[in-house]
Write a structure and sequence with these properties.
- This protein has 334 residues and is an all-alpha fold.
- It folds into two domains: 210 residues, no CATH class; 100 residues, no CATH class.
- The protein is built from twelve helices and no strands.
- Helix 3 packs antiparallel against helix 7.
- The chain is elongated, with a radius of gyration of 24 Å.
Amino acid sequence: MDFALRFAVSLLPVVLFLLTLVSLDSYKLVPARGLILAIVIGAGIAVVCLSINDVLIQALGVPRARFSRYGAPPIEEVAKTGLVLWLIARGRIGFLVDAGIVGFAIGTGFALIENTYYVHTLNTDNILVWMVRGLGTAVMHGGVTAIGAVVAKALFDRTGGKRLWFVPGYLLATILHSMFNHFVLSPVGETILLHALMPPLIALVYWQSERTTRRWLGAQMDVDAELLEIIQSGQLSESRIGRFVKMMEKQFPPAVRVDMLCYLRLRVELAISAKGLLMMRAAGFRPELPRGTQEKFRELRHLEKAIGPTGRLALLPVLHQSTRDLWQIYHLES
């Protein structure tokens, strides 16, 4: 079989699958540069893991087939899934579908390197082998990492990043990876089963994510708008912000309290801008960043230093600090 054909059959399916996931996302919250970076990092992870696997196989003296079932999955998933877990913990991923897309992109990069390696080293012209590697193994790498990432994101949102939220997602990705490598069914049978199960799972994740996003946008937009109106009107005395300012009189000097209110106003304005962009994207528009946004971020950074960690901590009762609220600020800035 021609080298180019083997290469295409083993690599194109996972790339097309990833592009389909991106195209189905209504909000398009994973930027193109982030997607490319995830693929590149996934490729780098593959290079490292392939080297580690070879060293361990030789050092332990175990057959490669056995190692692929029990040794490779935990090593490879701790790197692939671990990167998505870090992004979730840092507030860089806001919704379930974003976690799934980033996870699948990392798995795609991993699969591209792994299948390229086998195209060079595996001397066979059997078209079924390359179809299984392309439609089966490559999609599996992206799929299990995506599933682990979605589970981790759901638990992170539910627990607020507590109680070992990252463990179930990693374990699930590792177990699914290991099960695939056991070949309980024939390789062709496992590939068919994989493609029978993946679309319903993806559809469920997209449905749940968009439902949650719409609910969050509707509820938080009203809260942010009301909060901004209170701040701009100057009528703070009867509001919760006014009561908060009264409580802070003995703890912070007047200049710091003014900076804290300015900081709160900027955060709310940026949050409203981010939600507005999301709504426009969902409606099919491609809006530009509002004028003056970068200046607001520079002022926000200045105020963060002015009020210090203690001031930011004191603002928690009136400032949104959920994972999605933190994410939207990062997304607007980036």
